[in-house]
Amino acid sequence: MASPRIGFVGAGRVARALAQGFARHGERVVAVASRSAESAERIAREVPGCAAMAAQEAVDACDLVFITVPDGAIAAAAAGLRWSAGKAAVHTSGATEAAALDAAARQGAATGGLHPMQNFADPAVALAGLPGCAAAIEAEGELLATLDRLARTLGMKPIRLPPGARALYHCSGSFAAPFVDVLLHEAVRIWGAFGVPAGEALPLLIALARGTLDAAAKDGTVQSFAGPVSRGDIGTIERHLAALAKLPPETLALYRALAARAIPLAEEKGSLSAEAAAKLRALVERG
Ligand SMILES: NC(=O)c1ccc[n+]([C@@H]2O[C@H](COP(=O)([O-])OP(=O)(O)OC[C@H]3O[C@@H](n4cnc5c(N)ncnc54)[C@H](OP(=O)(O)O)[C@@H]3O)[C@@H](O)[C@H]2O)c1
What we know:
alpha/beta; 14 helices
């Protein structure tokens, strides 16, 4: 597939970002279909050369069709379409096996998965963030080479997953993405407890988070690890625990759990003596 005609079935966030990205890099994005005409037409308006049409027409018009519907709808969406040899059906789900597309495979289509490990809440932000992020690719032969090339076109780093690793791979992303949101949300709530509105607190806390990410990117998570646990500063952690005891108990429980996971990091960094680590463990695990 040197220059496949690319289509999308499911015109949501991922389809919008990938369609725009591929088209900007000269790929032929020619068709988009969705449950509602409005979603498909929005992508067709944004992407030169792309037309909104019915899902079967998109399959007929394309060599490579991304099935970008919610995970639970992938198998049924693929099974409801007619496929043939020479066509490829590819989903973009992180947690779904390529076997979800077996109905297309039985009709002769090549099948696979290309999961961009990025947050697509905002397609423009996602597109800007694709360079350097992982693209987990599952495919064989010519389709594997094509998906590999398409991922690299957007600056992503293709990776192959060993069999059975999908759920672990996908849940690791929770720690690097939605759980980061959860932690920022907790921090904003804490600022709320001393009277700072969320709109003021969030950018200031994001500046801190950015600095942390930049340091981790430069020196790794162990060497860049900072804060009272890394220093074995027991007095400060006692004050944190006492302050958090005045807030809803979930926040204190989360702090204790994270502090407990931070201790081995400090030990690995070499900034915490065995004695300080034991005292810290006893302090944060009490409760
Ligand atoms: N969001 C992320 O951050 C992210 C990241 C990586 C991978 N993914 C994966 O990418 C895939 C798409 O996710 P998304 O976030 O783009 O979802 P989304 O924004 O919810 O969009 C899904 C689109 O599919 C359409 N649709 C739903 N059922 C359909 C059907 N049966 N036939 C045709 N179209 C249908 C929807 O309908 P309308 O036409 O009504 O709009 C919607 O436009 C999922 O497998 C997801 O796991 C998501």
